[in-house]
Design brief:
With about 500 residues, this protein is of the alpha/beta class. It is built from 20 helices and 19 strands. It binds flavin mononucleotide.
Amino acid sequence: MESKKELRKLISMRKKQVPLEERRRRSVPVMERLMVLPRFRKAQNILFYWAMQDEVATQDAVIACAAAGKNVFLPVVDGDFLRIRRFSGQAALTPGESYAIPEPVEGSEEVRISDIDLVVVPGVAFDMDGGRMGRGKGFYDRLLAGASDCSQGGPYKVGVCFDFQVVDAVPREAHDMLMDAVVCESRTEIIRNDNRVCSVFGIRYPIVSGGMVWCSGWRLASAVSAAGGLGLLGAGSMRPELLREHIASCRAATDKPFGVNVPLMSPYAAELMEVVLSEKVPVVFTSAGNPKTWTPRLKDAGVKVAHVVSSSKFAVKCAEAGVDAVVAEGFEAGGHNGREETATMVLVPQVRAAVSLPLLAAGGIVSGAGMAAAFALGAEGVQVGTRFALCRESSASEEFKQLCLGLKEGDTMLALKKVSPTRLIKNDFYAQVQEAEDRGASKEELVELLGRGRARQGIFEGDLSAGELEIGQGVSLISDLPSAADIVRSMVDGYRRAVAGMEVL
Ligand SMILES: Cc1cc2nc3c(=O)[nH]c(=O)nc-3n(C[C@H](O)[C@H](O)[C@H](O)COP(=O)(O)O)c2cc1C
């Protein structure tokens, strides 16, 4: 990397050498990239942090933005401060060999930084001293300082390498300047997306591997977290001391945030919570119980809390309990299920309408396309079980995994409704349950039939006949056993492809 002095020289040389038209032409793909950024599409009030006389490409961008129906704002120096004024149409900027400085029209409305959705920081502004040569960083810092009381961290800041930009890689300084995204001629780098699930849990991708009895130990949880998702340790099949060991192993394997799922119906729930608290685990997902029981205590200790629900009624209880996020888990899901059998497609929009909390969808999501569908319904993240149960780091037995790879639609059914509705693979044990349920067996009889340790016997020890084999409907979409990191990557890629390839009506 060149020194700052050399970089300055290069830029000024390039400004002289590269003809104006060429500079404008090369800025077109940058503008195109900027305009498809979801955050840019959503923004209505856009501030261009400088668009000066010799920066023709930036001025082209200002015009393009105004033409696209955005409210465009420009900074005006006022002593030591910048005022933000609205750019009122094209009058001040006429394309041509040389532009007039796009000073906002006299008397145009002045706004505060908190009214701005997105700041575009053009060109070298962020790789030279963190500010434009001459007047730059001081103003920039002061401008954004005014945004410190904005909700969600103030406006979204996009650095763009327009015009005579010499570097096409994302400059490290962009990170120091707290850019949230950087757009160059050939690539876009998102540094901060404004996804609430990511910000609550401090993760890169809003993908959570659900707690799963006999599947999600430290190997799986740490692999998902290291890949940018949030890995959960499934404490439902652990005694407190074992959970403590898994927490330590998870910490040794990754420095990224991870969490613990505590099903509140576990006979060890209280002791498991004591372990979580004493080990200062940053995130807890509770399930199968009342969110009010543990949320206040966990929140007091600074733990981020999410709770899993199968109805919008329970989502409202979660909001009342003060959780940080809610997981809406539909009937397709593996493991224990809601009595009302509401499917993900129907549940998610209703939970979205019922609460304003950050919302994760679960149940039937095994791919990026499924994730995109959940987002279309209002989710901001996903909790995925079945897909991660069938990966290399899952602690399920090889026999269980191989059986699952051959399953087709209809090979799992919801059973044991009188006890606790559970989605099971149709094996010999399931046939016994079905026979008992068909003849109207009582809850007590079913509890006895289930006995103890059947999930362990089936999933962990690989007894495919007598074991209780839990897996979700999505299993029929799965035919491989990749690594957890590959699953996270392919979900992110698949999500992006699905969104980009969506039918335009
Ligand atoms: C084998 C298995 C065990 C599970 N165990 C638990 C559990 O202990 N606690 C819990 O909250 N959810 C449990 N779940 C549900 C998952 O955390 C997750 O919400 C669900 O699997 C999502 O649906 P999907 O399987 O369609 O991805 C389990 C799921 C599976 C497949």
